[in-house]
């Protein structure tokens, strides 16, 4: 279970507070969506969950399975099952996708006390998981994400997620830059990972993604706080009325 | 008019070292005369220092304080097993090899029995019997040679003479291995003469390696004179890997005939203070040059790559890519001069030098120099220096890769682009393994 308690976050080198007492609970097995206007703190929440530098948590806590992750390095969090699918996945020139994936997977396995996968075993696994996302082995021999289209990058994020088998999946604007076919493939990839042991936090600006990844709950984030929580129908409401109501509240 | 030249202690000591060594250095009378002449040339030039433009960033005079005795003979025992240890990743490359220990040929460690198409002999032997005519090619200081090359003529003890037979295509690389071993700190001076016959192709590696446990202080002076014949191809890898304290001075003089291809690669890691020079002359039209390199330096290590590419004739192409990784107080120097002579129309030259700075105290000095006298040419150059990208680091770490490994992965990817210039897969992997060792990672299995 993910428990975010009264989280206050500011930028390290700026005094502006971005998250102003955000509280949220996502039980295992559930998919929660976070929707909100631009600048509401959605991406900050994603980055703080993953442990990116540059943010300072001034108050509150984040517990994953009852354990605070705030003092953990990003790779320790990954080993604890935290995974962030980036809004803009990075390109890593000179590092083959397969090398990257194998290094990541074996790092995590090592931290979890599991044996490292041999090269043939890993290749088989990568092939299998890639096929479901229309990613062939040739694509994985190329440097990570270099020259990939927006859709290919997002598919490659979901492949990473599928291989690393995290238990807390945070998807940051995964729908941005996707056409309808790519959106379908990516959503199917995500849905295939839904399980009673896994919690999802799906961050999005638009309701569209939630037609494909149907959430158990929808939270409205505005002005650094959860302003409203409801069922999946809340997303449809927002699509109609926009975020004006919450922005006013913020002002 | 008499000009009294002020000599530094080291310069004085080098002259004295020559007096002490002269009788034991190999060579016929004409060779001895050339050596004496060369030490005289050195006496006039002195050790290059920072007020000489070409040595501005690499002050040899300031860094060569203590002169080590010349390695005029060697009795260091070295077994095949130790040779393999010294070679490290290069031992896995299926290759012909000729081996020198502390600057002296060791037939028992060499393996050139089935080297068809290659005529291999040694400088040491050739010098003993060299006639007046032979001396010109064997023991001369290259035209325009500097003090370091003059010292090479004066002190050289041995090295390989390699002739690639006209039209021969040599599949296996030839390793010319220089091993540092033993507990005596000395100055090793060697020379290689490489001639690639018309239409021939070969891969030749000059590998400077050290046996773990050898004395860490050492001076090395290596000169390669290379001639690539008409339509011939030479892949020439110069690799120097040591233990962080040695002084490496190397030079490579290359002449390229019509339609010749020369692919030179300089790899350096763990060298205390190094200067690698490469002078390339396009002597015939249609030449294709790729001159690249990778170097890694930390602590107070210093690596200088100084290149002069002379487009003396039209229709030639040159590519240069050097990448350096600098940590601690490590310092990288890149000087790349490209001369395009008035007649050298349709010259196509590109140069890139990049450094990855891993610490605040690292230093990178890059000096591209384009001297273009022709008007119908395409020439470009670039230099970059940057730190590791913190966003990329975060991306890797968010996938579970620990910081140290994530950094290593990114450094490998940086250096990998230069290593890709080495066409021979086994050699490329061996150099990548050296780089990984530098990073404290075991080679990928």
TrEMBL record, chain A:
A family per Pfam: ABC_tran
Single GO MF annotation: ATP binding
Boundaries of every ABC transporter domain copy: 2-248
Name of this protein: Fe-S cluster assembly ATP-binding protein
InterPro entries per the UniProt record, alphabetical: AAA+_ATPase (IPR003593), ABC_transporter-like_ATP-bd (IPR003439), FeS-cluster_ATPase_SufC (IPR010230), P-loop_NTPase (IPR027417)
Protein keywords: ATP-binding, Nucleotide-binding
Gene3D superfamilies, A to Z: P-loop containing nucleotide triphosphate hydrolases
Family: Belongs to the ABC transporter superfamily. Ycf16 family.
UniProtKB/TrEMBL annotation, chain B:
GO biological process, one term: iron-sulfur cluster assembly
Pfam families registered for this protein in UniProt: SUFBD_core (PF01458), SufBD_N (PF19295)
Signal peptide residue numbers: none
Record's protein name: Iron-regulated ABC transporter permease protein SufD
Protein family: Belongs to the iron-sulfur cluster assembly SufBD family.
Residue intervals of the SUF system FeS cluster assembly SufBD core domain: 183-414
UniProt xrefs under InterPro entries: Fe-S_cluster_assembly_SufBD, SUF_FeS_clus_asmbl_SufBD_core, SUF_FeS_clus_asmbl_SufBD_sf, SUF_FeS_clus_asmbl_SufD, SufBD_N
Domain SUF system FeS cluster assembly SufBD N-terminal stretches: 28-174
């Amino acid at each position: 279970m993910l428990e975010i308690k009264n989280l206050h976050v500011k930028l390290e080198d700026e005094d502006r507070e971005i998250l102003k007492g955000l509280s949220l609970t996502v039980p295992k097995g559930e998919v929660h969506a976070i929707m909100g206007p631009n600048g509401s703190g959605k991406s900050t929440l994603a980055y703080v969950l993953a442990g990116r530098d540059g943010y300072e948590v001034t108050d509150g806590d984040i517990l994953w399975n009852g354990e605070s992750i705030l003092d953990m390095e990003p790779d320790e969090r990954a080993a604890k099952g935290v995974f962030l699918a980036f809004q803009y996945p990075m390109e890593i020139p000179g590092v083959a996708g397969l090398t990257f994936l194998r290094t990541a997977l074996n790092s995590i396995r090592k931290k979890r006390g599991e044996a490292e996968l041999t090269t043939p075993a890993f290749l088989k696994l990568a092939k299998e998981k890639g096929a479901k996302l229309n990613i062939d082995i040739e694509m994985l021999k190329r440097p990570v994400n270099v020259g990939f289209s927006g859709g290919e990058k997002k598919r490659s994020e979901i492949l990473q997620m599928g291989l690393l088998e995290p238990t807390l999946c945070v998807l940051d604007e995964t729908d941005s830059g996707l056409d309808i076919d790519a959106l379908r493939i990516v959503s199917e990839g995500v849905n295939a990972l839904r399980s009673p042991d896994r919690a999802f936090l799906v961050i999005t600006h638009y309701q569209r993604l939630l037609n494909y990844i149907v959430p158990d709950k929808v939270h409205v984030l505005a002005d650094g706080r959860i302003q409203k929580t409801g069922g999946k129908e809340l997303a449809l409401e927002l699509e109609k009325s926009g975020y004006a109501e919450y922005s006013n509240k913020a002002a | 008019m008499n000009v009294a030249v002020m000599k530094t202690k080291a310069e004085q000591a080098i002259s004295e070292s020559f007096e002490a060594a002269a009788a034991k250095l190999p060579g016929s009378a004409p060779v001895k005369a050339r050596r004496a002449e060369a030490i005289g040339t050195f006496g006039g030039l002195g050790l290059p220092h920072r007020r000489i433009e070409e040595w501005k960033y690499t002050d040899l005079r300031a860094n060569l304080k203590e002169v080590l005795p010349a390695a005029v003979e060697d009795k260091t025992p070295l077994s095949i097993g130790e040779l393999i240890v010294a070679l490290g990743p290069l031992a896995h490359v299926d290759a012909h090899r000729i081996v020198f220990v502390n600057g002296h040929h060791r037939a028992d460690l060499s393996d050139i029995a089935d080297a068809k198409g290659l005529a291999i002999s040694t400088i040491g032997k050739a010098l003993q019997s060299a006639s007046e005519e032979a001396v010109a090619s064997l023991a001369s200081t290259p035209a325009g040679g500097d003090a370091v090359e003059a010292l090479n003529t004066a002190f050289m003890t041995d090295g390989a003479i390699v002739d690639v037979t006209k039209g021969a295509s040599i599949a296996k690389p030839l390793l010319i291995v220089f091993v540092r071993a033993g507990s005596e700190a000395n100055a090793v001076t060697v020379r290689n003469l490489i001639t690639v016959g018309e239409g021939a192709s070969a891969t030749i590696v000059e590998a400077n390696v050290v046996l773990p446990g050898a004395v860490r202080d050492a001076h090395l002076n290596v000169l390669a004179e290379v001639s690539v014949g008409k339509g011939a191809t030479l892949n020439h890898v110069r690799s120097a890997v040591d233990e962080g304290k040695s002084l490496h001075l190397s030079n490579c003089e290359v002449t390229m005939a019509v339609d010749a291809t020369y692919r030179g690669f300089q790899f350096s890691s763990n060298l205390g203070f190094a200067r690698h020079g490469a002078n390339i002359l396009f002597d015939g039209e249609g030449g294709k040059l790729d001159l690249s390199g990778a170097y890694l330096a930390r602590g107070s290590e210093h690596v200088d790559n100084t290149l002069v590419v002379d487009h003396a004739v039209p229709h030639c192409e040159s590519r240069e890519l050097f990448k350096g990784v600098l940590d601690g107080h490590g310092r990288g120097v890149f000087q790349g001069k490209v001369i395009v002579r008035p007649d050298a129309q349709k010259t196509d030259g590109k140069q890139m030098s990049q450094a990855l700075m891993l610490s605040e105290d690292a230093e990178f000095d890059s000096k591209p120099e384009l001297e273009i006298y022709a008007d119908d040419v395409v020439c470009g150059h670039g230099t970059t220096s940057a730190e590791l990208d913190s966003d990329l680091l975060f991306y890797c770490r968010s996938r579970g890769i620990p910081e140290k490994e994530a950094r290593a992965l990114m450094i490998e990817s940086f250096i990998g682009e230069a290593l890709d210039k080495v066409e021979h897969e086994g050699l490329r992997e061996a150099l990548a393994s050296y780089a990984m060792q530098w990073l404290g990672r075991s080679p990928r299995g």
